[in-house]
Each structure stands twice: as C-alpha cells, then as structure tokens.
Inverse folding.
C-alpha cells in the first residue's frame, strides 16, 4: 500500500517520504480500515520531529518505532479481528487509529464511532482529537454549565473552533481570542465576544471567566488567575516548551499550585473513547457543531500539511485526503 513513511526524526520535508509498505495486519481485537482521510494534529508535528525529546520514550529512542504516523482517521472497515463484535466490513467510521497517513490502518473499535451523517470523510477525519479535547476539557474538567463564562485563547485553530462551538451548545457565554484576520471566523462559529491578541491582552481585561482553555499558553499562571473567577478552572493546553521536556515544567507547576488556590489549574490529556465520539457525532448531526476545515492535501503533501499545523496558525483543521 502507499504510505507516508518516516525513518528518522527531523523536519517533515526531510524525513517523510511517500513509499510502498506492507498493508498492516490487524490483531484479533482490532479492525483494518481503508483510510479515506486523516486529520493532522500538533501531535503529528511532535512525533515527526521526536520533540520534546522526552516523548521519544514513547515514539522510539533512536528512530520512530512506527514507520507510519497519523492518528485521526475516517474510513471504511475492511476486515475485523476475530474478537471484534461491534463492527463489520463496510462500516463507515471515524476516530483514532495507528498509522492514518496511509491507504490502510489498524484501529481498536473502542476508539471508533460511526461517521456522522452529512459529513464527508475529510470533515469526519478532522473531528477526533480536537473534538475530544474540547468536549472533555469543557464537560469533564471545567464542568461548564449554562451561563458560565468561557474564554478560549487560540479560538480559531483546530481545538479552538470545536471548543467555541461546544461551549455554546452547553449554554455558555463564550469569548474567543485570536489574531485580527481570524476574528470574523471566531464570531461566525458562535463566540459572543472576541479579543484580538495583537491589540489587547485578555489577562488585563478586568473580566472574570469560569473556564479558560488556553491553547497558546503564553501567559504566567498568575496572570491568568487574575481573570479566573474564584472557583474557576484553567486548562493550560499547549504542548510547546523546551526541547527536552516540552510543557512538562508548566504542567507540574500548575498541578503543584492547584491545591493551594481556590481555582482549579488543570492540565489534562484527552482520551479517545467511542462514547465521546458518539457525543461529538450527535452535536454535529444536530447542527450545533460544524467542523471548520482550513486545508485538504493529498497524501503526497503530508509533510507540508504537518509543517503548516506545526507553525501554529491554522484556521480550523488540516486534513489529508487519501
Ligand atoms: N490536552 C490534550 O490532550 C491535547 C491534545 C492535542 C493537542 N494539545 C495541544 O494543543 C495545541 C494545539 O492546538 P490546536 O490543534 O488547536 O492548534 P492550531 O490548530 O495550530 O491552533 C493554534 C491557534 O493558536 C492561535 N495562536 C497562536 N499564537 C497565539 C497567541 N499568541 N495568542 C492567542 N492565540 C494564538 C492561532 O491563532 P492565530 O492564527 O489567529 O494566531 C491558532 O488559532 C498543542 O500545543 C498541543 O500540545 C493538547
């Protein structure tokens, strides 16, 4: 099969190459998917560069353990393992898999759900990681309820565009922060208020928010606590940071401080699960959430797509059409 193959760590254009590899064999508890589209995430940028270095414990110390990257997927079930009872060949699904930048990929049924009605495969592939972060951060970490004031710093990107829309569907009053050229997009997807970060600093607004999802994560905890309500929740979400440890220092700092303040400082990791993909599917099918697609690239342009996402200024999601 055709796949985007990675043999070393480095810049996407230097280490990724379109090649022919063996079609993966699914295990007994897995399905084999014919991939129609793959979503591109910051995680792919991190995996291709093997940065921060600490992540190489997971990716492979000297070279990538998985020669084919890509997690978010939409496709058709081609074959099912003998222990799989919930899916059958021909089912159209979306979710997370191993090696989505290829014609075929293995996936566990617990990480998949039916493709939402009315979405193309490309739109469906844009949903999983960004949608799961947004849903789980708002619902499980922030316990966002109607009337809550929510601020999304980085509102026009992949996670931000889902967070704004899901927060609105929860009945929150939403403020989105982005650069000037993306303010209109943030308003269009439902934000009640927008802040242009090139002109104003949200931490100096004097307003108070019950929940802040901070994708840019470029203010100190103290600065952000200033605009968090007394019992509010801050999710510092960026994985960016030093070459060795990335955001781990900031995460530990927030966790250590959290028990000593009335506010909740809660960095978290999203978890793929069918139940939450089904929730996202329902939000999409009811029209409350609509994926925002920035670019669609063919498989051969995966390096450029990953580099674009890595630059940190995407307008919604970037997708690979296989
Ligand atoms: N918690 C988890 O489980 C989890 C899972 C996946 C990813 N992540 C983290 O999420 C981040 C990627 O998020 P994403 O996929 O949404 O990224 P993205 O699509 O690249 O979007 C980044 C957004 O940040 C905005 N931005 C850039 N500089 C900014 C600034 N100084 N102030 C405010 N906004 C700014 C950009 O807006 P403009 O273009 O207008 O500048 C853009 O909308 C990564 O750091 C990753 O580690 C966490």
């Amino acid at each position: 099969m055709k796949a985007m193959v990675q043999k070393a760590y480095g810049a996407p254009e230097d280490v990724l190459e379109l090649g022919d590899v063996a079609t993966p064999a699914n295990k007994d508890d897995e399905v084999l998917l014919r991939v129609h589209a793959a979503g591109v995430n910051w995680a792919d940028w991190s995996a291709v560069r093997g940065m921060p270095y600490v992540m190489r414990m997971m990716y492979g110390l000297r070279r990538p353990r998985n020669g084919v990257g890509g997690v978010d997927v939409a496709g058709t079930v081609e074959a099912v393992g003998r222990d799989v009872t919930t899916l059958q060949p021909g089912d159209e699904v979306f979710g997370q898999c191993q090696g989505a930048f290829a014609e075929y990929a293995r996936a566990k049924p617990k990480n998949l759900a039916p493709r939402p009605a009315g979405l193309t495969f490309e739109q469906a592939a844009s949903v999983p990681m960004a949608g799961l972060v947004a849903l789980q951060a708002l619902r499980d970490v922030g316990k966002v309820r109607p009337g809550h004031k929510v601020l999304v710093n980085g509102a026009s990107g992949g996670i931000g565009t889902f967070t704004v829309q899901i927060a609105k569907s929860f009945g929150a009053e939403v403020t989105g922060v982005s650069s000037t050229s993306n303010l209109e997009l943030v308003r269009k997807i439902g934000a009640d208020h927008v802040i242009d970060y090139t002109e104003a600093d949200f931490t100096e607004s004097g307003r108070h928010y019950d929940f802040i999802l901070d994708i840019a994560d470029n203010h100190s905890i103290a600065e952000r606590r200033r605009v968090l309500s007394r019992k509010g929740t801050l999710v510092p979400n960026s994985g960016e940071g030093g070459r060795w440890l990335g955001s781990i220092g900031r995460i530990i700092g927030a966790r250590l401080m959290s028990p000593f303040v009335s506010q909740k400082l809660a960095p978290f990791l999203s978890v793929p699960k069918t139940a939450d993909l089904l929730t996202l599917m329902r939000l999409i099918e009811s029209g409350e959430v609509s994926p925002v697609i920035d670019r669609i690239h063919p498989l051969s342009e995966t390096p450029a797509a990953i580099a674009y996402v890595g630059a940190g200024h995407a307008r919604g999601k970037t997708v690979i059409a296989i």
In short: The domain at 129-265 is CATH 3.40.50.720 (Rossmann fold). The first strand starts at residue 2 and ends at 6. Residues 82 and 140 are 34 Å apart (CA to CA). DSSP finds eleven helices and 15 strands in the chain.
